[in-house]
Amino acid sequence: MSEASDTELLRRTTAGDADAFTALYRRRQAAVYRFALQMSGSEELAEDVVQEVFLALIRDARGYNPQRGSVASFLYGMARNHVLRRLDRRWLARDEAEEPAAGDHPESELARGELISSVRAAVLALPVHYREVVVLCDLEETDYAEAAAALGCAVGTVRSRLHRARQMLAQRLHAFGDAHVRRGIRPARCSI
Amino acid sequence: MKCREFDELVVDVARGRGLGETVRRDAEAHAEACARCAARLAAERDVTDALRALAARTRGRGAPERVEAALAAAFVRRGNERWRRRTAWLAWAAAAAAAVFAIAGWLREPRRVEAPARVAARQALAPAKAPVPAPAQVRAQAPQQARAQAPVQAKVAPRPAARKPAVRAAGVRSKPKEEVATRFYPLRYPGNEPEAGRGPVVRVQVPRTVLISFGLPIDQDRALEPVEADVLLDRDTGMAREIRFVREQ
Questions:
Q1: Quick one: A5 and A92 in the same domain?
Q2: Which A residues 60-99 touch B at CB under 8 Å?
Q3: Which candidate from B18, B48, B78 shows the least CB-CB separation from A58?
């Protein structure tokens, strides 16, 4: 079962094979969860989105068209729809309020932890259509074609949005760096 | 490479993905020679590093196990629903097929036109003969009685062998056997009123899985074998109204 392709697992899932569904879930749930988490900043929402995406697969997976992209893209696309629907219900506003701002950390906290919080806050502050390309292409490391299939747009659109999103992030992170230089913390490049 | 070309590639150079080796080297060589593009590349690499740090923080995270358990339960429930729908569909299909066959058989049944002399002779031979009984009555008759009637009917109206109907009409079984039958189950579909006129009963074969939709057990080893059933037709429309399942004792 572990060697079967996503498409094969999805086909068997549609035919009622519980083992195939479990294998597909275990293979893909983490990516869906992380996508929803990075898009929203909310673990609760991410968990709900995973459940809704795979419930939709259980109900009817016939919407998947292999010619339009991989199963992973299909799942990202469904996750995106659920996330955007939730964000429209002001989930983001609540979660952003919960998200600690970079300047709220005590001085004793490691600069590295602060940097990551700042990056997370900067990503969450991006407009949705920029945020989703950053999450898919940079955080989940999908290629442009797969991201384009998930988002339902052209590869060129993904590239241009990614350029613009990264410019916005660079400005925010630059501001964060300046603030920490003033506070005596050197925001050196992360080395992971 | 020009600065303008470099600008288009700088994100991919900083990410280290999506570029061929030659293009990447050209871009890096340009950045070494151009201070503006070198600064741009450094800024992009900072963004890449920051995003990779964030990605590393969430790597390995996933939905809690309770989500998988809930989905597994949902999958089982969904499977059961599908099975119920499939068997219900089979039941309707079988009922519709039975109705079609019944009507076809009824219409193709040879109409016996007897000469007045033969009618008189038959009445003389069997003056007290009852009307054609219902299937249940036939089954209740003793085999000897059925055998005694058979020659009389054969003399009066021999059945042409070539005109055998697609579905045997009830009450004309050549060798009555002891049978047991369930009660009649109404076929549920729009327009099938319980008080509709009861018409003839026809014997059909239906898939054994149809039993499931009426809450009857099936022998899994014989699931692919058909089962005999009597379908009660509407007196006026010929539509199937009720069904009962029959087996030999």
A1: yes
A2: none
A3: B78
CATH at A170: 1.10.10.10
Name every chain A residue with its beta carbon within 8 A of the beta carbon of B54: 38, 116, 119-120, 123, 139
Looking at the structure of chain A, the number of domains it has is 2
Nearest to B58 among A38, A51, A189 (CB): A38
User: How far B235 CA lies from chain A's nearest CA (Å)?
Assistant: 42
Q: Are residues A65 and A128 in the same domain?
A: no
pTM: 0.58
* pLDDT single digits (tens) A16-64: 888 899 999 999 999 999 999 999 888 999 999 999 999 998 887 777 8
The reply to whether A82 and A175 lie within a common domain is no
Amino acid found at B178? E
Grade residue A159 by pLDDT with cuts at 50, 70 and 90. Answer: very high
Q: Where are the alpha helices (DSSP H) in chain A?
A: 6-14, 18-40, 43-59, 71-88, 91-98, 111-125, 128-133, 144-151, 155-182
Question: Is residue A94 located within the same domain as residue A110?
Answer: no
d(CA A72, CA A80): 12
Structural domain boundaries enclosing A31: 1-98
